[in-house]
Amino acid sequence: MEDVFMWLNQPLFQDSFIRIWMAAAVGTGFVLAMILILVLIRKRKKKEKAKLDEKDPITEKPDPLPILELANLQGIGNREEQQDAFGISRMEHLEEDGLLAVLCDGMGGMAEGGMIAAETAAEMVGMFPWENDSTVADWIRQRSGRVYQQFRGHGGTTLVAALLRGKFLSFWCVGDSDLFLLRDGKLYALNVRQEYKNDLVLRALEGTFPVEEAFFDPQAGALSEYIGKEDVRCDYTYIPFPLQPEDVLLLCSDGVSDTLTLRQIRETMALSPQACCDKLEEEILAAGKPNQDNYTAIVLKYHGKGEGE
């Protein structure tokens, strides 16, 4: 042991005052310090990981979705003027009053179709909210009568209006603008187009003439009902239609539905409302119809209310 102490007490270098034991002590202290630092770093990492685990996004409650999402689209197509019009009630009144969306397609080739469409949409949104849904069909008939008095049947517009109140849908339709529902990946037409072709088909089914003749009649695509007739027949819901969470509604003019296939419409409605509108326009422009009509769409996605609401 005495030999060990003598060795430790020798100079580290020749003529140096630093002894071997001093260098060994410093080295040992350095190693211990490094070990301590590593231990502290590992503890700190464990604490940070524990905090991250507490904020794991997989276990966090996601932000609630809004009850309703909406978006809209409008383009002039290859026409000289825009004769479509639309209006939407104020979103901040959704909980209290519901939401009204209105779309009108002014009749091309008739006097002031765009003006009639714009005034009809504005008037309907302006009178909302109303006390009783049963008064709306009467208002539509009165509106049609006023337009008739002014233009004597030579000016008019279609109309499709959807009211979402709570989890229920009510709608009113005149003419050939469409209201589609996407539910569980399946597409449904909620209204029947009021075209002369459909009247001919009903007559053909009674045996008056072959059914195929109804589709080749030169007047088959003409409107049988429109706002601007002296006495108009409105298609509407007598009982509000219950919606299911994730239902999607599309209100559109025939510039959309006559250009695209039902498959294209179904696939675009599966997207978010804004993405749906963007895709609809992309598909319409890609179709490249030389006589492309004005096109307008309103997309509504109902998420439903969360638990406890």
Automatic annotation (TrEMBL):
Pfam families (UniProt xref): PP2C_2
Record's protein name: SpoIIE family protein phosphatase
Transmembrane segments: 20-41
Species annotation: Candidatus Choladousia intestinavium
Keywords, ordered alphabetically: Membrane, Transmembrane, Transmembrane helix
Domain PPM-type phosphatase: 67-302
Keyword match Membrane: yes
Stretch forming the signal peptide: none
